[in-house]
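A.,

Following up on our hallway conversation. Structure tokens first:
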């Protein structure tokens, strides 16, 4: 798996528009899991449009550093590739 922020961004750029599952560290040792579509990548963050049936908010954003530090783990559902493991 990519070990630099530039490589993580490149890997996410190649999966724009694909469905994914996110597992992120929440507050007080809770883990948040949600599904959606990778909609945008920017210089420092990426944006995920969440499934509306399951979530109250429309979108979330995380930094590439979150993946590097393993605070966020992404699994692309179409081709079963995990990012952040």
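Then the amino acids I'd put at each of the 85 positions:
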């Amino acid at each position: 798996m990519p070990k630099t922020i530039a490589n993580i961004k490149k890997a996410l750029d190649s999966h724009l528009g694909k469905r994914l599952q996110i597992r992120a560290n929440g507050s007080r040792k809770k883990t948040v899991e949600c599904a959606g579509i990778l909609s945008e990548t920017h210089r420092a963050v990426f944006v995920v449009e969440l499934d509306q049936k399951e979530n109250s908010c429309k979108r979330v954003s995380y930094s590439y550093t979150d993946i590097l530090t393993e605070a966020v783990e992404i699994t692309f559902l179409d081709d079963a590739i995990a990012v952040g493991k």
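Residues 5-13 form the longest helix (9 residues). Curious whether your intuition agrees with the design.

B.
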